[in-house]
């Protein structure tokens, strides 16, 4: 064999000897690229599977190439073990780094929710004071113009006394104690009449709302009586029951009955029929249906009827005390009218307005407390 043949024959051997040495470098680069790509997308499960399959295919190809090039089996196994160690280290780093963004997100959620809970409260308090301020603008303007007209003598004090004159009359009645005596009698009449009429309205509303036979028997007559004004039945009440307390309480009860009756009936009939099917499946008794299903579902309408009944009860109180009485705020107004004491008449009117607004605000507060579960539009 000539020297040229020896050199020519040794070139493939040298190339084959150099080729396994370059293979680990290329494999290391491929593993680093795959690891960096996998770490940049820690949440992409499909890309991880693809990277692992590609690494395994590359490993098998390198083993086959090493065997064909004459490399020893021990060198091939050493390189394979080193590659598996590097891959396990990369996977361990992935597992350690993957939960970190999730924990960060989870820890950030309560903070954001807490901020969302705090901010609306501050905004709600500011808006509440702003609403009170806006509601006070019109009364202040009216009182200021009223006082200016009275001071300038544009309107006679006998016809329209100034707010200062009304305040003086209120002070005199407070010092003498007359205002408290009349107010106590009026509050007692209104409370008894409202309790009687409101309870009957709630009871009949529940019966008519639940049972169709009661609706067919009672509702037409009740709707007909509801349209009769207070003043139209006042002479009959005086004729039947006289000028005593009983006739006044019945007149107040008549006014408080109808709003609560109508709203209770509408609230019950607006309950979803599927809830009654669920109640039958759960084997609720009739009492359980009323207490656990009907009344909670109809509560918004019932509270609305309560507010309307209180307002109408105050109207009935005024009519009852003006038709003939010796005590009460209505009697105070009637007596002051006979002696042309217009300031005292306005004192009685202001008392009715303030007490009526206070009772309405109390019911609205109860409505907000009892209906916190309702996500309604607030404007």
From TrEMBL:
Database matches in PROSITE patterns: ABC_TM1
Annotated Low complexity bias: 14-40
Annotated Gene Ontology cellular component terms: plasma membrane
Membrane topology: Multi-pass membrane protein
Ranges of biased composition (kind: Basic and acidic residues): 56-68, 78-116
InterPro entries recorded: MetI-like (IPR000515), MetI-like_sf (IPR035906)
Family: Belongs to the binding-protein-dependent transport system permease family.
Main subcellular location of this protein, as a coarse class: membrane
Protein's recorded name: ABC transporter permease
Organism: Paenibacillus athensensis
Domain ABC transmembrane type-1: 183-363
Keywords: Cell membrane, Membrane, Transmembrane, Transmembrane helix, Transport
């Amino acid at each position: 064999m000539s020297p040229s043949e020896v050199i020519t024959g040794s070139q493939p051997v040298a190339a084959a000897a150099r080729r396994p040495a370059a293979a680990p470098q290329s494999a290391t680069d491929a593993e680093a690229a795959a690891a960096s790509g996998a770490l940049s997308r820690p949440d992409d499960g499909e890309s991880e599977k693809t990277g692992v399959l590609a690494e395994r295919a590359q490993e098998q190809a390198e083993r086959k190439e090493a065997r064909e090039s004459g490399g020893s089996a021990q060198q091939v196994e050493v390189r394979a073990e080193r590659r598996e160690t590097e891959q396990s280290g990369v996977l361990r780093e992935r597992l350690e780094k993957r939960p970190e963004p999730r924990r960060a997100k989870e820890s950030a959620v309560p903070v954001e929710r807490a901020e969302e809970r705090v901010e609306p409260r501050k905004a709600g308090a500011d808006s509440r004071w702003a609403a009170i301020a806006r509601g006070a603008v019109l009364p202040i303007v009216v009182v200021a113009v009223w006082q200016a007209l009275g001071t300038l003598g544009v309107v006679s004090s006998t016809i329209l006394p100034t707010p200062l004159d009304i305040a003086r009359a209120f002070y005199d009645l407070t010092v003498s104690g007359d205002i408290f005596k009349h107010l106590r009698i009026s509050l007692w009449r209104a409370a008894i009449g409202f309790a009687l009429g409101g309870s009957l309205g709630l009871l009949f509303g529940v019966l008519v709302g639940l049972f169709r036979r009661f609706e067919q028997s009672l509702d037409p007559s009740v709707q007909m009586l509801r349209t009769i004004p207070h003043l139209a039945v006042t002479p009959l009440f005086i004729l039947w029951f006289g000028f005593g307390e009983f006739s006044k309480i019945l007149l107040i009860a008549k006014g408080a009955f109808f709003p609560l009756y109508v709203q209770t009936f509408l609230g019950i009939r607006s309950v979803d029929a599927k809830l009654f099917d669920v109640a039958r499946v759960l084997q609720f008794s009739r009492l359980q249906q009323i207490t656990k299903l009907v009344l909670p579902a109809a509560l918004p309408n019932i509270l609305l009827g309560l507010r309307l009944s209180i307002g109408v009860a105050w109207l009935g109180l005024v009519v009852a005390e003006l038709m003939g009485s010796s005590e009460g705020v209505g009697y105070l107004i009637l007596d002051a009218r006979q002696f042309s004491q217009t300031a005292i008449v306005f004192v009685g009117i202001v008392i009715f307005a303030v007490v009526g607004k206070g009772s309405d605000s109390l019911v609205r507060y109860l409505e907000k407390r009892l209906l916190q579960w309702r996500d309604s539009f607030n404007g």
